[in-house]
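[audit] Reproducing an earlier prediction to check determinism. Same input, same settings, fresh worker. If the tokens differ from the archived copy the diff job will pick it up downstream; this log only records the rerun itself.
[audit] input (146 residues):
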Amino acid sequence: MSIARTNARKAAVQALYQWQMTGQNLNLIEQQFLDEDWLKDAQKSYFNELFHGVPTNLDVIDQALGEFVDRPVDIIDPVERAILRIGAYELLYRLNMPYRVVINESINLAKCFGADGSHKYINGILDKIAQQKRALEIRGRKTEGR
């Protein structure tokens, strides 16, 4: 996994957090990130996909999360919510990206930005979504391992 893509995810978490907290226009937030050079070491196209893809598909993403979280999605800690939404987006819409990569990257984001232990919560929720939405991929990996 490229460091530029990892950095795009980190920036997307911060931008989505800002959007969730302020409700600001996505383009204004994105421009702020560009102006302040926060995307210097990030894959800008992937940041753009995540940052605009999550709000565009928010209903589907939150529905997928809602099946496995222990409380309404809207009251999950905003940092964890942003990380979960990015992970769910990737599991649902980036089928070319291995589910293990998505989950691992999300765990690392939680370790970087989330509260102590939040990576376990993120792992549990995204693993359940992967089991449901990526069952063929997971079965294929188990078959390969035999």
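[audit] rerun output stored. Observation attached for the diff report: Residues 103 and 126 are 6 Å apart (CA to CA).
[audit] end
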